[in-house]
Amino acid sequence: MGKQLEQRTIALGGNPNAGKTTLFNALTGSRQHVGNYPGVTVERIEGFVRHQDTEFHIIDLPGTYSLTAYSEDELVARDFLTEMKPEAVINIVDAANLERNLYLSVQLLELGVPVCIAMNMVDSAKSMGISIDTVKLSRLMQVPVVPTIARSGEGKEQVLDEVMKLASAGGNVNKFQISYGDDLDQVLIEMEKVIADGQFLDELYPGRWIGIKYLENDPDVVEKGEQQDPDLSKQLLAMVDKVSRHLETTLGTFPEALIADYRYGYIGAILKQGVIKREYPADRLLLTDRIDRVVTNRFFGPLLMLAIIYGLYQFVFTYSQVPIGWFAIFFEWLTDVVSSVLPDGLLKSMIVSGVIDGVGGVLGFVPLIMFMFFGIAILEDSGYFARVAYMLDRVFSIFGLHGNSVMPFIISGGIAGGCAVPGVMASRTLKSPREKLATMLTVPFMNCGAKLPIMALLVGAFFAEHQASMMMLITLIAWGGALLVAKFLRVTIISGPPTPFVMELPPYRLPTMRGLLIHTWERTWQYIKKAGTVILGISILLWAMMTFPGLSDSDKQVFIQQRQELKQTVPLSVVQEIERKAGGEPVTLSTEALSLRKKLVLIDNKEGEAGLRGSVAGRIGISLESVSRFAGFDWRTNIALVGGFAAKEVVVTTLGTAYSLGEVDPEAAVSLGDTLKRTPGWTPLLALSLILFTIFYAPCFVTIVAIVKESGSWKWGVFSMVFNTVLAFGIATLVYQIGSAVGFLGG
């Protein structure tokens, strides 16, 4: 029996854009999974890695600049460190931005956790003329410092070696302490004594650190203190108030500002001791700056951005066509196999129409989704998306939004393929409640991964010669509509002044193939899992609603009689030809037999349509048709759109089920797009009307729940559902009616 692996839990922390996720992927590879921290919407990513005789359980903390609880990400990161108490923390710092990144390192050390600093992107720093003496930095800060290049995996083994030493030491780390000047040092000594005597929050935090948090007026720590011992908390707050008044009188400052100054002073003093050297002048124009002169130029930047997005769509639709065809062939083959094995009845109907036609319609777009995610991963990992946010801030401010609103829009599918749920969650980075609300109410307009199959289906069927251009137009419509709605909301129900925008632009980096493949697979797998769970369940439910109560016996008898009468008009040998063909025999049908089979299929179609009309879903669709016809939608389209309230992918699923009523030409299997094209009433104008409705109508149910959770009120979730649907129907109706009047796109 082999030696049992020792288990260790470590955390991975660092500033945004320091390469934390890249190092996490390099360490864990595919051994990772995504969840949520208990009680909050912040994503929790964890993975495993074996090193020597130890298995490390690595928690990837949210990227933060500090541990002061001003945002939910910072609070989650800090609570994990203090409550879960990992055996060590790998702190990733950007070698080219050492002063800013070490601020978090200092806070981690003050918290008393064992820290190993991973000095990342040393190659990028070297190209900028920056060299760092990691040995001297380690000696001065009394923590292990390991140079790394996360994207190539260089240094990861040494990091794990140092982490193992820290974990084996059992938390026996040197007590880290900074002097904050006589005034604050004196009050901290007094506060430490009061905290120690009262055993105040000592199960969570070190005494001096609690004092610092009170001086910084940290709302989370103060609230916890008041809950545990209100009297002692008041005593500490009185001490803070006293020293605050003294500092304001003597220095014109406050404790939190003074603490930040001394921390940066400590970092600066260390760096000046030969830790960091520059071979070139600090103000040298770097490659990143030279690229940004073009990429973020006021005139050329937006044009380049549009060209890149158009190029992405061209790439996706050009190279995904062949694998999409493979998937279509596979699902056609699967349908034939199931149809030949199972006897006619409800089970066969459910599997063919509910599962294969439904879920298969969504999974058929997996190649397109994968290519889209791959292209987006390139733009993200290279640092280009941050430039998009920077450029669009000027536009967003005109419409009453903040520059930080750009990232929720992009995450939600600002180009295509994202998801509105994390986009809504990302709006929490906005400090202004009004801008946060306006952002979360408009991000559902983006072309998320759930809408992408609908767009791909309709664009591929009705605008096949201009697919990239149409997707580009759809993207611009989604962005334009979102901004106009945001402006409307900001000048009406959630008006208020805008707040300034500051954003860090990370250096450009060449993405690694490993990182691109991991990011692409993670997102694609989420899409596949959703199709195999949520979409499967909804597909079966909708199939049931579209099947029951079914035709009455007398109605069935009418269609049986029609078939019998039709067969009596031809010789018996012709009927036998068709029966042998249906039984799987390799029979070449005569012209008369082919004609008869087409007529029989038409009767089958009429029977299927009659059954669908009489079903629960059919009755709902028909009841809505008196209104929906103004936008061009018939009762079958209505069924699909109602299903889309649960999840947008269901629109394709339900259209696949609703139109799987047989083939006009049984010898030619056709796609759903071909079926729609040959269905009377389906024109490019109707497809455009449906595309516009899909862009703007109610978010899926999970997104509504996220809006409720982030806004703290159900009224905004209901508002989003009702307002968006009314807006979508108004736009679709306007386009369809005007198009029909002037004969536009087949109208």
Mind explaining what this structure looks like?
There is one protein chain. With 747 residues, the chain is α/β, with parallel strands linked by helices. Among the domains are: 6-168, P-loop containing nucleotide triphosphate hydrolases (Rossmann fold, 3-Layer(aba) Sandwich); 181-278, Orthogonal Bundle (Helix Hairpins). It is 64% helix and 7% strand. The protein contains 33 helices and nine strands. The strands form two sheets. A seven-stranded mixed β-sheet has the order 2-3-4-1-5-6-8, with helices on both faces. The longest helix has 35 residues, at 513-547.
State the helix count. Answer: 33
CATH fold group of the domain at 6-168: Rossmann fold
Radius of gyration: 31 Å
- CATH homologous superfamily assignment of the domain at 6-168: P-loop containing nucleotide triphosphate hydrolases
Distance between the termini: 75 Å
Largest sheet: 7 strands, mixed
Weakly predicted, low-confidence segments: 35-41, 661-669
Architecture of the domain at 6-168, according to CATH? 3-Layer(aba) Sandwich
Overall CATH class of the domain at 6-168? Alpha Beta
Average pLDDT: 83
Q: What overall form do the CA principal axes indicate?
A: elongated
Residue share in β-strands? 5-15%
Summarize the topology.
Elements: E1 6-14, H1 20-28, E2 32-36, E3 43-51, E4 54-60, H2 72-84, E5 88-94, H3 98-111, E6 115-120, H4 122-127, E7 130-132, H5 134-141, E8 145-147, H6 156-168, H7 181-197, H8 207-215, H9 219-228, H10 230-250, H11 255-275, E9 276-278, H12 287-295, H13 300-319, H14 321-341, H15 346-363, H16 366-382, H17 384-398, H18 406-411, H19 420-426, H20 433-442, H21 452-462, H22 467-491, H23 513-547, H24 553-567, H25 572-582, H26 591-614, H27 616-628, H28 635-643, H29 649-658, H30 672-678, H31 684-696, H32 701-711, H33 714-742
Parallel strand pairs: 1-4, 1-5, 5-6, 6-8
Antiparallel strand pairs: 2-3, 3-4, 7-9
